[in-house]
Design goal:
six-stranded mixed beta sheet; ATP-binding; amino-acid transport; Rossmann fold; four-stranded antiparallel beta sheet; binds adenosine-5'-triphosphate
C-alpha cells in the first residue's frame, strides 16, 4: 500500500440544491498522477470544489493522510496539505513573478524553490505576470500552489486555451511533481496527454464515477473511453445515421 494521500468516500456535493456529485469515492495516492475524465458538465469541477472545501459536501468523507478534513474550512484544508489550482484561476497580472510567489508563501525559500521547479521562469522573475505567455502563467499558478508543499495537488483543466505543445510541456512538469512525491489529481480535456502521465483514471458521468481503469489500459483501448464518456454523443450519431439509412 502506498503512502495514504487523499481518500474520498461517498462524497455528495450539491449546487443550488441540486445534487451534482453523487456518492463519489476515489483515492489519490502520493507519488503518482490520478486522472479524472468526463464530458462537459459531468461534475469534475464540482467534485474538486467539494474536496477542497470551496463547496460543502452534503455527505461522505474526505481524508488527507488519514485525517478527516471534510468539516474543515477551505484554508485549513489547504494548510494541511491540499493544494488546488482551480479552473480559470489567474495570476496577479500587475505583480511580478516573484511577487506572485511571495504572496502565496512569504517564507524565505519559496522563491528559490519555485525557480528550481520552473527554471523557465528564472529570467522572468521581475516581469509582470500579466506579460507572461499562457503556458508560463500556468507554470506560475502551479509554482504558487507548490511552494506551500502540498501533499496533494488538484489541478482543474490546466490546458484551457493553450496549444497542445505547451500542454505537453506542462504535463511533463506535472509528472515530475508526482515523481518527487506529490499526489496529483488531474482534470484534463486532453485525455491522451493526461493518460500518458497518469497511473489510474476515473471516469465521471452525471456526477457519478462509472469506471476506474489503469491509464495504460485506457491508452491501449481508446474504445473504453469512447463508449464511456463519449457514449451518449456517438449513440445519438449512430441512431441518426441508422434513421437516415432506413429512410
Ligand atoms: N453555480 C452553479 N449553480 C448551479 N449549477 C451549476 C453551477 N455550476 C455548475 N453547475 C452545473 O453543475 C454541473 C456540473 O458542472 P461542473 O462545472 O462541475 O462540470 P465539469 O465536469 O467540470 O464540466 P466542464 O468540463 O465544462 O468544466 C453542470 O450541469 C453545471 O451546469
Amino acid at each position: 500500500m502506498t503512502d495514504p494521500g487523499l481518500t474520498v468516500t461517498g462524497l455528495t456535493v450539491k449546487r443550488g440544491g441540486l445534487t451534482i456529485c453523487d456518492d463519489v469515492s476515489l483515492d489519490v495516492p502520493t507519488g503518482e498522477v490520478t486522472v479524472l475524465l468526463g464530458a462537459n458538465g459531468a461534475g469534475k469541477s464540482t467534485l474538486l470544489d467539494g474536496v477542497a472545501g470551496v463547496l460543502p459536501g452534503s455527505s461522505g468523507e474526505v481524508r488527507l493522510a488519514s485525517t478527516r478534513i471534510d468539516r474543515w474550512p477551505r484554508h485549513r484544508r489547504a494548510r494541511a496539505g491540499l493544494g488546488y489550482v482551480e479552473q480559470g484561476r489567474t495570476v496577479f497580472s500587475r505583480l511580478t513573478v516573484a511577487q506572485n510567489i511571495l504572496v502565496a508563501d512569504p517564507g524565505g525559500n519559496s522563491l528559490r524553490e519555485a525557480l528550481e521547479m520552473f527554471p523557465q521562469l528564472r529570467e522572468k522573475v521581475a516581469t509582470r505576470a500579466g506579460l507572461l505567455s499562457g503556458g508560463e502563467q500556468q507554470m506560475l499558478l502551479i509554482a504558487r500552489a507548490m511552494v506551500r508543499r502540498p501533499r496533494i495537488l488538484m489541478i482543474d483543466e490546466l490546458s484551457l486555451g493553450l496549444a497542445p505543445r505547451i500542454v505537453s510541456d506542462l504535463m511533463t512538469v506535472v509528472a515530475d511533481l508526482a515523481r518527487a512525491g506529490t499526489g496529483v489529481l488531474l482534470v484534463e480535456q486532453f485525455a491522451s496527454l493526461a493518460l500518458k502521465i497518469g497511473t489510474t483514471a476515473h471516469l465521471i458521468e452525471r456526477g457519478r464515477i462509472t469506471r476506474t481503469e489503469s491509464c495504460s489500459q485506457l491508452l491501449q483501448d481508446p474504445s473504453i473511453l469512447e463508449n464511456a464518456y463519449l457514449g451518449n454523443a456517438s449513440a445519438t450519431a449512430n441512431s441518426e445515421k441508422s434513421a437516415d439509412e432506413a429512410g
